[in-house]
């Protein structure tokens, strides 16, 4: 069976006009004799609005109710797509995760798909139907609704492609593919024709919202090629695939940037074993994700300064936790919310010396101050003042010749 999975993101189903447009894409595949499985996100803005409502009800909204609430946007979009296909004479219906069912494990808000029952969907596509499956949602072994983290309908699409052994998995979105950097932040950004899972995973984890990081991990693990392309412009997109399929002579493939980061510094912390653990343990218990960490070398062997970054939405909670932590002593607590992490990513840096220097020099030439640095085999990240974001993206894009 020639199965294709087509995933439509929030902006692709963001209005009635757009929904009508994307049903033409679906029909096109159907006419080419594909068995089509559609995965849809909620109409753009809907999930954000539902999250806002949960916060207005309570700042401690029950997590399983949260998942039941925020997954509801997908039901609307799926029914509208199916309804339009019916209108055009095609057999189609919406499927919520519990109806299939799609099983997940892990915590509410951030679950992962571990099994999809195939029987009902197989039967339906064999009968000529076009199933429109709600992305972003699943159920757990207590039969409660779960969700897969923001942007999670990408992960739904990849896992559906895996379980149904789809020939193709196409992510339709509002940009033409994966770009060297966010095309909405830098108009010199260039579309990347093909990118490895590893690089895409770094780009996504470091701020490129175009794909959800977990979905790339799933794709890599299951060797599923992903095509990212536009719902509105008929042009070839980006292929995300394994490294051995790629011939690339660029050192750097892309640049990502974050927004909404905050920096926390504890000045004058006692320099003794176990202090860092005492600081981070309660943060991790409260599911606060600590990102970059630096600890200065203690000048007198007694005291040191410790800096780390978190998401700004976790800032108030973090302040409270640190101030109430009886296991640590420090002289001062400093916070700064206007920081951005800029990262350059590329497998080419493994074999090319001098990349770090070029990055730092390029930023220095524009008088951009680097506050924190972190590196891995295929990426270098720096923390800078948020106001320098555009300048840094521009100069690094130029330095590593990404516009060519
Ligand atoms: P969807 O609603 O289709 O899931 P998203 O909003 O989640 O779409 O992702 C698409 C957005 O990702 C684009 O509008 C773009 O601004 C942003 N983006 C960030 N980095 C990149 C990148 N490197 N390439 C393409 N898009 C990017
Ligand atoms: N609707 C969900 C969200 O906004 C899932 C998705 O867009 O993929 O996060
Ligand atoms: Mg998305």
Would you give an account of this structure?
The chain has helices spanning 16-31, 46-57, 63-70, 72-87, 119-126, 153-163, 197-205, 213-221, 275-285, 315-323, 355-365, 389-399, and strands spanning 3-8, 35-40, 92-95, 102-105, 112-116, 130-134, 137-139, 145-147, 168-173, 194-196, 226-230, 238-241, 254-257, 261-270, 293-295, 303-311, 332-345, 372-376, 379-385. Helix 1 (16-31) crosses helix 4 (72-87), helix 7 (197-205) runs antiparallel to helix 8 and helix 11 (355-365) crosses helix 12 (389-399). Strand 7 (137-139) and strand 8 form a beta hairpin. The chain is globular and about 75 Å long. The longest helix has 16 residues, at 16-31. The protein has an 8-stranded mixed β-sheet with strand order 3-6-2-1-9-11-12-10, sandwiched between helices. The protein is an alpha/beta fold. It is 32% helix and 26% strand. The protein has 2 domains: 3-174, Carbamate kinase; 257-399, 2-Layer Sandwich (VC0802-like). The model has no long low-confidence stretch (mean pLDDT 95).
